[in-house]
Amino acid sequence: MIIKYFSWIKEHVGKSEEQIELPDHINNVNELINYLNEIDKKYTLIFEKKELIKIAVNKTYSSFDTNISNNDEIAFFPPVTGG
Amino acid sequence: MRKNIPFIKIKIQNEDFDVSDEIKILHQNNTGAIVNFIGVVRGYDEKNNQIINSMTLEHYPGMTEAEIEKIVFESSQRWELTGVIVIHRVGNLKPSDQIVFVGVSSKHRQNAFDGCNFIMDWLKTKAPFWKVEENNNKKNWVSFNENDNQALKKWQK
After folding, report:
1. A78 at the B interface (CB within 8 A)?
2. C-beta atoms of B131 and A81 within 8 A
C-alpha cells in the first residue's frame, strides 16, 4: 500500500509518501491509523485531532470507515487551501 | 441526463497564463457571454498581520484534476455552458502573481456568471491544493477558511 502525505502532515511525517505492507487484520482507514500510531509516535501527533484530517482512497475523498486493501493508495491531508 | 459542455480545458501548471489567450479560446465556441475569475497572490496576510514574500502551492497530482472535472461536470448539470477553462498554478509564486483562472462561456450571461462562481466556490473547498506562505525564513501553512464552506450554502438545491 502507498500512503501519501501533504502540507504540514508531510512535514510531520518527514516524507511525502511511503510504502507499507498492510497486515491482514486491517480493513479500514481507522484501523490503518491505529496501526500507524502503534508503529511510531510521530503519527499520534498527526491523528490526535482526526477532525482536521481529510482522507482520499485511490484519489477519491473517503472517510475513516472506508474499506481498504493492500493495493490501495491512501492519502492524508489537511483541508485544502487553493484558489 | 448529462448536458455536454462543448469545450473543457483543465490545467495544473507552474507557468503563468495569459488571460487574453484563454478568453480568445472561450470566444470561439458559439458564445454570447464570457465570465472569468482570476485569483492573485496577496502581499499581506491580514489574519496574521504579516508581509508575505512568496508563497508555494502544492497539490495532489491526479486527484486535483479529477476533483476539478467533477466540479465542472456538476456545473454542466446546472447551467447551459458552452466552454469552461480552469488553470491553476503550483510552485513558488510572488505577490501579485496570478494563481488561478476560471473562465466560463455561455449563450447568456447569467449562466456564465453562476457557472464561474459555482466552479470557484467548489474549487476552494474540494480541489487538493495547499498554500504555504513564506516570510524571510518563516513558513506558515495557510489554514482553511471557514467562510469558504459558508459560500457553498448558496448552491444547495
Report:
1. yes
2. yes
Of B60, B63, B144, the CB nearest to A81: B144
Nearest-Cα residue of chain A relative to residue B63 = A59
Residues of B with Cβ-Cβ distance to A82 under 8 angstroms? 57, 59, 88, 99-100, 123-124, 127-131
pTM: 0.94
Measured CA to CA, the distance from residue A31 to residue A68 in angstroms comes to: 10
The pLDDT tens digits for B66-116 are 999 999 999 999 999 999 999 999 999 999 999 999 999 999 999 999 999
- Interface touch A83/B99, C-beta < 8 Å: yes
State how far residue A60 is from chain B, nearest Cα, in angstroms. 7
A48: helix, strand or coil: coil
> What is the complex's ipTM, to 2 decimals?
0.95
Q: Is the pLDDT of residue A39 over 50?
A: yes
Q: Which domains does chain A have, with CATH numbers?
A: 2-77 (3.10.20.30)
For residue range B35-63, list pLDDT tens digits in order.
Answer: 999 999 999 888 888 889 999 999 999 99
How far from chain centre, in Å, is Cα B92? 17
Q: Which residues of B124-150 are buried (b: 16+ CB within 10 A; e: fewer)?
A: bbbbbbbbbbeeeeeebebebeeebee
> What's chain B's length in residues?
157
Which CATH number describes the domain made up of B7-141? 3.90.1170.40
